[in-house]
Design a protein that fits this description.
The structure holds two protein chains of two kinds.
Chain A (H helix, E strand, L loop, with lengths): L3 E3 L4 E4 L4 E7 L6 E7 L5 E7 L3 E4 L2 E6 L4 E6 L8 E8 L5 E3 L3 E6 L1
Parallel strand pairs in A: 2-11
Antiparallel strand pairs in A: 1-3, 3-8, 4-5, 4-9, 6-7, 7-8, 9-10, 9-11
Chain B lengths: L4 E3 L2 E4 L5 E6 L6 E7 L6 E7 L2 E5 L6 E5 L4 E6 L8 E8 L7 E2 L3 E5 L1
Parallel strand pairs in B: 2-11
Antiparallel strand pairs in B: 1-3, 3-8, 4-5, 4-9, 5-6, 7-8, 9-10, 9-11
The chains are: A mainly beta, B mainly beta.
């Protein structure tokens, strides 16, 4: 089993829709997690961190479920510009980020 | 922008050659991590440097090596290149070991 797993998608949604992605992790000792956004052929850019129960930033909400060992990302009122690959990462007991394979989102007009 | 820069942006090498990739971290960031991202996959941790010393290594062979310099710059060296080394190489800097990592634009390496 991979340490961090994501549904690769693609998730095809219309503008204005609400979409949610889940990311499961295997290391029960992990304390912090991150969502990064990656546009095609670009570097990952930090979207938000998830340290405890959750985090909200505008249209984006991240939740952490320790019992079931997953984090989620909810995007409300999707924009065309939200089309990208969303990477979740586990900042584990070491000092490295362990990434999932990413979930691709395509927002259509 | 993150203030992290990498050079070159693109590079083509042949099998067996050696390559050096460079990263310049934000001023004050004493930690740099290097990742390899193959097409269609998430980034994979190669190693991390903290105050010029290696501070952790992922599952990569010894032909992947690195250096960090006092001026917040660092290098990733890969010897005896293999076709599977073709990937996007990302460096990420952070204020300290356990702090948020910010990525540079990456170097796209193609090994023929």
């Amino acid at each position: 089993r991979k340490e961090v797993e994501q549904d690769p998608g693609p998730f095809n949604v219309p503008e204005g829709a609400t979409v949610a992605f889940n990311c499961t992790y295997s290391n029960s000792a992990s304390q912090s997690f991150f969502w990064y956004r990656q546009d095609c052929r670009k570097e990952p850019k930090l979207l938000m961190s998830v340290y405890s129960s959750g985090n909200e930033d505008g249209r984006f909400t991240a939740q952490l479920n320790r019992a079931s060992q997953y984090i989620s990302l909810l995007i409300r009122d999707s924009k065309l510009s939200d089309s990208a690959t969303y990477l979740c990462a586990d900042f584990n007991a070491g000092n490295m980020l362990t990434f999932g394979g990413g979930t691709r989102l395509m927002v259509k007009p | 922008e993150t203030g992290v820069t990498q050079s070159p942006t693109h590079l083509i090498k042949t099998r067996g050659q050696q390559v050096t990739l460079r990263c310049s971290s934000q001023s004050g960031h004493n930690t740099v991590s290097w990742y390899q991202q193959a097409l269609g996959q998430g980034p994979q941790f190669i190693f991390q440097y903290y105050r010029e010393e290696e501070n952790g290594r992922g599952n990569f062979p010894p032909r992947f090596s690195g250096l960090q310099f006092p001026n917040y710059s660092s290098e990733l060296n890969v010897n005896a290149l293999e076709l599977d080394d073709s990937a996007l190489y990302l460096c990420a800097s952070s204020v300290d070991i356990r702090e948020t990592q910010y990525f540079g634009p990456g170097t796209r390496l193609l090994v023929l």
